[in-house]
Amino acid sequence: MPILGWPELTLLLGILILLHAPVWPAMRAKPLGPLPYRWGCYVGIQSFLASAVLLVEAYSFAGNHPLLAAASALQAVLLASAGIGLLRRRRWGVACLFAGYLTREAVPAMAGSGSAFIGLIATLIFLGINLLYFGKRWTWMGLKAS
């Protein structure tokens, strides 16, 4: 009996593509002022991809858990907005990113998940890294929504 079948290989390939495909356009990102913007571009693409997954999650919650469906849909909108804002190098993209990930931590708490604390720690580390990164680039990021 093989260890990995087609479903497992398909899932592995999908994960590798979703995690690594955004690296290629991010490596060619133009600098923001005197600083590189590769991580900002990568986070913007990943946020946009995560919003698509969250929309599917919201749809799956819709029948049995309408509150969780609404929270997932809100996360999807915030992360899609963050993706667009970060790719356009706007400050509101950073605000949407932080709001989206903080809203993300409300879902396991509402579901009564026991692993909510571990997810909170991981999210705080991710947001801390992004706070340092975007904090250094804040003055060069635009204010306009255009």
Report how far the terminal alpha carbons are from each other. Answer: 56 Å
Low-confidence stretches: none
Could you state the order of secondary-structure elements as H and E? HHHHHHH
Return the domain count. 1
Averaged pLDDT: 82
For the secondary structure, the number of strands is: 0
Q: Which structural class matches the secondary elements?
A: mainly alpha
- What share of residues are in beta strands? under 5%
* Annotation field: number of helices: 7
Largest sheet: none
Q: Globular, elongated, flat, extended or rod-shaped: what is the shape?
A: globular
Radius of gyration: 17 Å
Helical amount: over 70%
In short:
The chain has 146 residues and is mainly α.
Question: Can you give a write-up of this model?
Answer:
The protein has 146 residues and is mainly alpha-helical. It has one domain (36-140). 74% of the residues lie in helices and 0% in strands. The chain is built from seven helices and no strands. It has helices at 6-20, 23-27, 38-61, 66-87, 91-104, 106-111, 116-137. The longest helix has 24 residues, at 38-61. The termini are far apart.
